[in-house]
Design the sequence.
């Protein structure tokens, strides 16, 4: 019928128009798509920026397309802030360790008939302080020349650092064990073998000092502990000096006919000394 033909023609024309529109849209996408994105971006940009306020400052500036110099300055500021935080953290850890070490000092009881004077390093020469340094207590606190100076790095273990040299009313000089003038007797292990520090022709280093006048038949034992003998009037028995690290072999240059020499690795760490204890002489000395 004529009515049906007209309807079919209209449907066909509509379909052809839709296909033509889609084809034209595909061909002109680059032009109208770019214009639409710029228009939409300009319209929605304030809302997008508002949604990102909670992000970091650096992210905000990146989204706002700030120049590279501004971003580089921001990064450098953050790096300095992180460095400052790391320094504070390191300082806090150092103070915590010092607090623990001081508590160990205060909790350590002196040997019978001896007493302790708690002090700290007052002055030291960064180029020669392994030869001597100054502490903040002196004669008015009962400190005398020859008194032993110790540190407590491990709970219950008294490490000998040196002996008192010159004294003044409110300060005193400490001669570390590596000072050639410090010549005291030491016991090797738990036996009766005795030697003397700084009596051989060997040269001391920062952490090792020579020990001499050892018996010719002495045999080095790995990790053998070296302690004080108590033969010196102002130095108690049993203070830890260190451990034997080497000994003369038969026929070596420093090996004599009747005695040997070697090196002791010191227990005290002279690079981190601060809190010390001076063992003053026996009552009635």
Sequence:
């Amino acid at each position: 019928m004529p009515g049906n033909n007209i309807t079919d023609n209209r449907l066909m024309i509509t379909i052809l128009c839709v296909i033509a529109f889609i084809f034209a849209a595909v061909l002109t996408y680059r032009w109208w798509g770019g214009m639409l994105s710029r228009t939409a971006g300009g319209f929605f940009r304030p809302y997008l920026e508002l949604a990102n306020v909670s992000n970091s400052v650096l992210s905000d500036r990146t989204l706002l397309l700030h120049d590279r110099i501004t971003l580089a300055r921001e990064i450098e500021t953050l790096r300095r802030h992180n460095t400052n935080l790391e320094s504070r953290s390191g300082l806090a850890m150092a103070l915590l360790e010092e607090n623990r070490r001081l508590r160990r000092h205060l909790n350590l009881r002196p040997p019978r008939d001896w007493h302790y004077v708690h002090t700290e390093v007052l002055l030291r020469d960064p180029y020669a302080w392994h030869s001597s340094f100054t502490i903040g207590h002196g004669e008015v606190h009962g400190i005398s020349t020859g008194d032993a100076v110790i540190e407590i790095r491990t709970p219950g273990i008294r490490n000998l650092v040196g002996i008192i040299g010159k004294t003044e009313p409110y300060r005193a000089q400490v001669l570390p064990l590596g000072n050639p003038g410090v010549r005291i007797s030491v016991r090797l292990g738990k036996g009766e073998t005795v030697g003397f520090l700084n009596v051989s022709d060997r040269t001391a280093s920062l952490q090792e000092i020579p020990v001499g006048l050892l018996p010719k038949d002495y045999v080095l034992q790995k990790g053998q502990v070296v302690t004080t003998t108590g033969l010196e009037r102002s130095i108690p028995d049993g203070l830890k000096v260190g451990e034997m690290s080497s000994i003369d072999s038969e026929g070596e240059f420093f090996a004599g006919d009747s005695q040997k020499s070697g090196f002791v690795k010191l227990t005290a760490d002279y690079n981190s000394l601060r809190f010390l204890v001076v063992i003053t002489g026996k009552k009635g000395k």
In short: Residues 47-55 have pLDDT under 50 and may be disordered.
